[in-house]
Amino acid sequence: MVKALREETFYSVRMRASQNGPHEKGGKHISGGEQLSTYDNLKQSINVLLDKALSHSRGNPDFMQIQFEMIDEPIKKLKPLPIEINEAGSVEEGQSIARNLLEKAGVPTESIEKAHRELMEHSVLRGAILFDIRSCSRIGDRNEKGVRVSRMDWLTGDFEKWADHYNMSRSQRLKEALVLATKVSAHPATIAELCWSDDPEYITGYVASKKLGYQRITKLKEYGDERGCRIFFVDGSSHLQPYIDYLERQSILIQWEEDE
Ligand code: WAQ
Ligand code: MG
């Protein structure tokens, strides 16, 4: 019975898929995904990632890599950010709501504008752009790759209880977005995040911060547009490497508790 008393071992499972060759050889990014799994659940986790990439609206991949590795550092638990919905009738309205929320979170106007220009130069990112609000410039230069946040998840049962409680759809996409936003915003250097999908049929995005929570915006781009966005506005570029380590290596499990 000693085994049952120990904390369960988790594995980080990651997937990336592309078309016209692997990403590093100029292939088009199709899909990526990250999960935490117990040993017994590995097959199921890998299948979820496989399904995600094999039937993707950005196209069929001709390159895919799935890998898992045991996590031997402690896993931190976080509560999901509170969620609010902002209805937008047009892209212009949605973008203006996003801009206002970013300013409310403490991102200066110049940073919002410059980050936007930076984004336009890289329409094929598979990770996030880090943008420092002090120097008003992109940091952590990774070009097309961006920084990919990893090692985070939310156990399905707990997520579904949360979704039912708030009358939200039990969608894998919403779960993944809220998990990522919660992890990113929990770091003290993060001021805010701006995101919308690169999937042509998905136009809802969000602005998130510790202060504002997860502010969903129902329209941030036009249908058919394959340009996505993920920008983390940060303050504290002098501690860039520990920040990137947190995003890539710190394991986070989201745990919801009712009535809290
Ligand atoms: N780490 C860093 N950047 C990422 C990650 C990650 N783990 N996953 C995705 N990205 C970046 C990458 O550049 C993608 O091109 C871009 O974000 C969009 O990713 O209904 O579906 O997975 O409330 O297409 C938000 C709204 C949906 C959900 C976001 O993003 C809702 C979405 P996607
Ligand atoms: Mg996508």
Automatic annotation (TrEMBL):
Designated gene of the protein: bioW
Reactions mediated catalytically: heptanedioate + ATP + CoA = 6-carboxyhexanoyl-CoA + AMP + diphosphate
Subunit: Homodimer.
Cofactor needs: Mg(2+)
Gene Ontology MF term list: 6-carboxyhexanoate-CoA ligase activity; ATP binding; magnesium ion binding
Lineage summary: Bacteria, Bacillati, Bacillota, Bacilli, Bacillales
Protein keywords: ATP-binding, Biotin biosynthesis, Ligase, Magnesium, Nucleotide-binding
Record-linked HAMAP family: BioW
Keyword Nucleotide-binding: yes
Function: Catalyzes the transformation of pimelate into pimeloyl-CoA with concomitant hydrolysis of ATP to AMP.
Species this chain originates from: Bacillus thermotolerans (Quasibacillus thermotolerans)
Recorded family membership: Belongs to the BioW family.
Group of enzyme by EC: ligase
Listed EC numbers: 6.2.1.14
Pathway linked to the protein: Metabolic intermediate metabolism; pimeloyl-CoA biosynthesis; pimeloyl-CoA from pimelate: step 1/1
Name under which the protein is recorded: 6-carboxyhexanoate--CoA ligase
GO BP terms, alphabetized: biotin biosynthetic process
